[in-house]
Amino acid sequence: MDFKLSEEEEKRRKEFLDGCKELAKEKPEDFIEGIEADFETKNQPYVTRCRKEFAKRGWLRLGWPAEYGGVGSHMDRVFFGEARGYYGLPGVDIFGIEMLAPTLLAMGNKEVKDRYLPGIGNGDTTWCELYSEPNAGSDLAALTATAIRKGDEYVINGQKTWTTNAHNADWGFGLFRTDPQGRKRRNISFLLMDMKTPGITIKPLEYLNRMHMYNEVFYDDVHIPADQIIGEENQGWTVSQALVNFERSNVLAVSAVRRMLETLVEYCNETKVGGKPLAQDSVIRNKLAEMATEIEASRTVAYYIADQQNRNQMAALFESSAAKVFIGDIFERLGALGSDILGSYGQVSASRWARQRGIWESLYQTAFVLTISMGTNEIQKNIIAWYGLNMPRPLSPVSIEKALAAAQAAK
Amino acid sequence: MDSTFTEEQTMLRKSTADFLVEKYPEAKVREIEESDTGHDPEIWRGMAELGWMGLVIPEEYEGMGMTFQDLSIVLEEMGRNIAPGPFFCTVLEGAYPILDAGSEEQKKEFLPKIANGELIFTLALLEADGIYDASGIAVKAVPKGDDFVINGTKLFVEQAINADYMIVVTRTREGASPEDGVTLFIVDAKTPGIHCEVIPTIGMEKLCEVSFKDVAIPKKNILGELDKGWPILSKVMERAAIAKASESLGAMDGIVPMTTDYLKDRVQYDEPLAQFQALQHIMADMFISLTTSKYLVYEAVWMESEGLPCAKEVAMAKAYVNQNYKELSRLMIRLYGANGTHREFKPGLYYRRAKAASIAFGDTGFQRERIARAIGLVS
Fold it and tell me: What confidence tens digit (pLDDT) does each residue in B276-313 have?
């Protein structure tokens, strides 16, 4: 057990940190901060600037095979995420880079890889994920939007929702029912589509703080070429569950909260209330020390997961569920703590009255990004209990009622 | 970076666990707890044969010359098995201070005897304030001829009734700061004027009141330099804090599977409790606490073992484990239901020990204040 990075790793880590630090200097005054900054319409010029710079450096192709222009290792992905998180930089399209590219690399044929990977890797094409539907959130396989094969095309009808970044993305990947009569999870295909295809309508969904991150996406007889499928027809569930090669450490979120805590410490040192710096308030000291401890704990777990994945991609699955729940929880609590410490100013949105540029009023509202998306904390806890601790699947209350009724009837 | 243990360390963990499981069945743990001495000399001899007390003592003093990280593996297993006895105080509070600050003569005199299990050591540090701060040191040692004469009362001295020697922290000067003027003495526990009495405590580890009445100790028994004992002690306390966190982590690592197994066995409403989602999510929370504690402790242990500055990391690990060991054992009792509240069931053992462990070498409030300073909050 040794937490020391090799000299080469330290050098690479510094390269990412320095590169991101430089780029952060160009951040516009009115940039809207947060780990969801990528999706905000007003941020788009800087988002593109960062993406192009990262592409130029090859940082969008970290750990890819050399034939697709890949550079660096798995640990480089971790260092890059850490650096971006710390400096709050947008420009990495998580759906293209973190989700679709690993899926294509693991499950796509050569033709598909040749067609889509270059655009992702050089920052030309951005993506969105078309999974959730109004009645298929955590129970994703309950989705009902259909894609029916007709000749060389699929014809799509239905609705997706909570689609992050659909309003900016060029392309989308998603899950659609290709066999409406088929068994759950065996009736779904993984399809790719140009978001400008006729028949697709995108409507914004306002987030708590009015941020535009989510959208509703409506399909009205949308025709897409049949070769825009990944994997076999009706095997889409398996494709979407491929865990190979995803970066699961959550190091980006960890370093983002580290930076936020540093900002809060500065604020407490500089701000006097009743003639005394907030930093001298023993309750604040205790709370910030507790938060710093939890953030450090999440950092050590992130590095553990990174190293385990570096050795074996399928390692540390339950630890990564634990890490995600933990950091998500920290986000929510840090948002609350920061806005509490700001007192009356904790309610002020970004404006000339705001302190700390209004980030705490914003974080208080956007803190749910991690605890709800990509598997809610409750779903992660199911994963830990069922697969990590091998506890049996619970019976639903309905099944229990039925079983009791059957037992009664038998008597 | 390497997030795995070496093959030797894995073997060390295995052999430690095998020994402890055999020697410390739950009934034995309770027997030792309830005994007057809190110490089983036969098990102690077994440990000596395995070389545990000399694990971190260099080979030139008849030890095994292994690392602090290796020791932390043994401590984890001791925590898992709730092994009572004078191991912690002998190694962390006796061997290490002598290794850190002892003269060559002192090292030659004491370290081989510690390594072979002949001597039990402890540290007489806390006083009436009960705080790990130099301002709490008031027991005086006054020079008289070739001796210093100690008077006063020490509290919470672990296993003092079994100790052959104790390192006694005294005030020899009222300096400019409380840290200045603290002197450590290696004291033969049989010196006339020393009286030990066990304080009844929740963890039953035989924490003692030790009173000193005109106890004369030769000058040559000073550990380190006169008046300059506090820096030595700081290091000893830092190391003991992370060692205590390792011990607690081992207990937490035992609690999670043990509680899961209990839930799988116990049937209510015709189903094992493990099938109820309300309980599954509590278990998942416990797994998350354990996982996040683990690597925070491992990082601090590694830094300590490598001799890197780690005051902040140790404070964080200790503070975090203080809270999480208490929380996990609390939830263990809850999940065992009424069974969890029985004195003779396992959860209570952990719960009581968790309280004691959270106090030893810095409770959460103490550690968090250190963290607050380390993250740059002005004071």
Answer: 999 999 999 999 999 999 999 999 999 999 999 999 99
Chain A residues whose CB is inside 8 A of the B284 CB are 322, 325, 380-382, 384-385, 388-389
Reference B126, options B174, B84, B97, B160; nearest CA is B160
* DSSP conformation class of A274: T
Partners of residue A284 in chain B, C-beta under 8 Å: 377
Instruction: Assess A269–B contact: CB distance below 8 Å, yes or no.
Output: yes
Question: Architecture of domain B231-374 in CATH?
Answer: Up-down Bundle (1.20)
* Greatest pairwise CA separation for chain B in angstroms: 78
Give CA–CA dist A306/A291, Å, rounded: 22
Alpha helices (H) along chain B: 7-23, 26-34, 41-50, 68-80, 87-90, 96-101, 104-115, 230-265, 277-306, 311-336, 346-359, 364-374
Q: Give the ipTM of the model, two decimals please.
A: 0.95
Mean pLDDT throughout A80-84? 97
Contact B287 A388 (CB under 8 A): yes
Tell me whether residues B284 and A325 touch, CB distance under 8 A. Answer: yes
Q: Which residue of A has its CA nearest to B368?
A: A289
Topology adopted by domain B7-119:
Butyryl-Coa Dehydrogenase, subunit A; domain 1 (1.10.540)
Residues 6+ apart with CB under 8 A from B182: B134, B137, B169, B170, B171, B172, B227, B228, B229, B230, B233
Q: Residue B70 corresponds to which amino acid?
A: D
Is A18 a residue whose pLDDT tops 90? yes
Interface of A with B in 271-290 (CB under 8 A): 277, 279-280, 284-286, 288-290
Whether residue B287 and residue A296 make contact (CB cut-off 8 A), yes or no, is no
- B211 DSSP β-pair partners: B153, B195
**Which residues make Cβ contacts (< 8 Å) with residue B246, sequence separation at least 6?**
B72, B75, B76, B79, B297, B301
Q: Are B166 and B189 in contact (CB under 8 A)?
A: yes
Percent of chain A with pLDDT over 90: 86
- Answer whether B277 sits within 8 Å of A290, measured CB to CB: no
Q: In Å, how far is A381's CA from the nearest CA of chain B? A: 5
- Three-state SS for B352? helix
Please state, in angstroms and rounded to a whole number, the distance separating the CA atoms of residues A229 and B261.
44
Sketch out chain A's domains with CATH numbers. 7-92 (1.10.540), 128-240 (2.40.110.10), 251-388 (1.20.140.10)
Q: Which residues of A are catalytic?
A: 247
Is domain B122-228 given the CATH code 3.40.50.720 in the classification? no
A323 to chain B, any CB pair closer than 8 A? The answer is yes
> What letter does residue A210 receive in the DSSP assignment?
S
Taking the model in full, what pTM does it have?
Answer: 0.95
pLDDT at A243: 65
Distance from CA of A375 to the nearest CA of B (A): 15
Beta strands A127-130 and A171-177, pairing class: parallel
First CA to last CA across chain B, in angstroms?
A: 35
Please give the helix or strand (H or E) that residue A282 lies within, else none. helix A282-311
CB-closest option in B283, B369, B378 to A391: B283
pLDDT higher than 90, residue B14: yes
Residue B189 DSSP class? T
- Judge contact between A190 and A152, C-beta under 8 A: no
Q: What is the CA radius of gyration of chain B?
A: 21
Distance CA B342, CA B126 (A): 32
Burial profile A4-33: b = 16 or more Cβ within 10 angstroms, e = fewer = ebeeebeebbebbbebbeebbeebeeebbb
Please list every residue in chain A whose beta carbon sits closer than 8 Å to the beta carbon of residue B274: 391-392
Residue-range domain boundaries for chain B: 7-119, 122-228, 231-374
